[in-house]
Amino acid sequence: MEWVVLLLAPLAVGALLYLVGRWLFSLDGDLTLLWAEWRGKRPEKELPGKVVWVTGASSGIGEELAYQLAKIGSLLVLSARRENELERVKKQCLEISNLNSDDILVVPLDLTDRSSHEGATKTVLQHFGRIDVLVNNGGRSQRSLFVDTKLEVYQAIMELNYLGTISLTKHVLNHIIQRKKGKIVTMSSVMGIMGAPLATGYCASKHALQGFFNSLRPELAEYPEITVSTICPGPVQSKIIDNVFTEELSKSLQKPGDQSHKMPTDRCVRLTLVSIANDLNEAWVSDHPYLAICYLWQYAPTWAWWLLNKMGKIRIRNFKSGVDADVSYSKKKS
Ligand SMILES: NC(=O)c1ccc[n+]([C@@H]2O[C@H](COP(=O)([O-])OP(=O)(O)OC[C@H]3O[C@@H](n4cnc5c(N)ncnc54)[C@H](OP(=O)(O)O)[C@@H]3O)[C@@H](O)[C@H]2O)c1
To answer: What is the distance between the alpha carbons of residues 164 and 158, in angstroms, rounded to a whole number?
Structure first.
């Protein structure tokens, strides 16, 4: 009998470890986020009728946010630079929802034109009378090595991703503080937590956002109904690689590469809406290996670096061979 136990015990432990490993590798969000998705408040209950202002709504994650919010019944403000694309998104929102034309306001906005942010905020308030949620989503990534990149590119990235975002936040927050309620949600990135080659400026801008909003949150602690959330996606399917900054401001990426290995946009947006509905302070929305590295980063940063350095070599090799640089373990959910 004893030898049977001795034989089976390691097998049982092995099987258990295998199952736990498989389960961990099937996750695509941090545990607080996935718990909220399972047991928490539902976006369909929390967000209908709310005025949600989405920047970067003309493509990718922002566009999909507009569609999912429209279906839920949120009132929408859509902003980005390209008005014709925003009108296209608005038209599509009207087709898939019960919203009327007046329920969706298109406000063209260049995040780098900070002098226009006050006027844009007034336009929204004149139309809807309030802003319940600001989703700071507009932004651009980077694909270039630091040694090859002009300094003006770094300035442009910070102007857009960091200063543009906090400028708009400042105007909207004035209104939210007057009402003593509202949500500021910012699309950061796993690159706001860790680092990655080919994206030194992008990572710096997202780290800046993380630091900024992590410090703003406790400044607003006296207002229990004002929440500040940062969403940290890993690689997600969108137009982000077509629009990246490169070595020079005037140069775009020649071969954006295949994006199909990345998290589907609708899954990223669904988890973002769960985060908003549940007022999560920070949410990691990512497939592996980036999700695993986020965890490792918290507990054993030096081991995380060992892994990141290995992945970094693959990123640079992929980039130089014209394949998309991101390394992703994807499960194709849609
Ligand atoms: N996709 C990913 O893998 C990923 C991962 C982590 C985080 N994110 C973050 O998610 C957000 C959305 O990116 P995405 O993936 O959806 O990329 P995307 O498809 O390229 O969309 C970017 C959006 O930002 C807008 N934008 C760019 N420059 C702007 C400016 N100067 N003023 C106003 N809007 C501007 C673009 O609209 P116009 O060109 O019309 O202005 C577009 O609507 C970004 O903040 C990005 O950093 C993306």
So the answer is: 8
Q: Which among 67, 154, 162, 202 is annotated as catalytic?
A: 202
Total residues belonging to the chain:
334
Of 59, 110, 267, the residue with max ligand 1 atoms within 8 A of its CB, to mutate for a pocket test, comes to: 59
Cα of 60 vs centre of ligand 1, distance in Å, is 7
Pocket test for ligand 1, best of 54, 153, 239, 240 (most atoms within 8 A of CB): 240
Task: Please answer whether residues 232 and 193 qualify as being in contact, where contact means their C-beta atoms are separated by less than 8 angstroms.
Answer: yes
pLDDT greater than 60 at residue 330: no
Query: Could you give the angle at which helices 165-179 and 117-128 cross, rounded to 10 degrees?
Result: 40
Task: For residue range 202-237, list pLDDT tens digits in order.
Answer: 999 999 999 999 999 999 999 999 999 999 999 999
Task: Dig out the tokens for 211 from the structure.
Answer: 């630091």
Q: How many helices (H) and strands (E) does the chain have?
A: 12, 7
C-alpha torsion sign, points 168, 64, 205, 147: negative
Q: Strand 182-187 vs strand 133-136: parallel, antiparallel, or unpaired? A: parallel
Partnered with residue 105 across adjacent β-strands are: 77
Closest by CA position to 174, among listed 136, 214, 212, 117: 117
Are the beta carbons of 33 and 284 closer than 8 angstroms?
Answer: yes
Report the C-alpha dihedral over residues 207, 277, 297, 216, rounded to 10 degrees. 40
Q: CB of 137 closer than 6 A to ligand 1?
A: yes
Q: Is the peptide bond before 10 cis (omega within 30 degrees of 0)?
A: no
pLDDT tens-digit readout, 78-101 = 999 999 999 999 999 999 999 999
Statement: residue 328 has pLDDT above 70: no
Taking the mean position of all CA atoms in its chain, how far away is CA 291?
14
Domains of the chain (ranges, CATH numbers): 31-320 (3.40.50.720)
Q: Which residue has the tokens 């990149």?
A: 149
* CA neighbor of 129 nearest in space, from 178, 65, 200, 58: 178
Residue 186 Cβ < 6 Å to ligand 1:
no
What's the half-sphere exposure (Cβ side, CA atoms, 13 Å) at 43? 20
Query: Quick check: 74 pLDDT over 60?
Result: yes
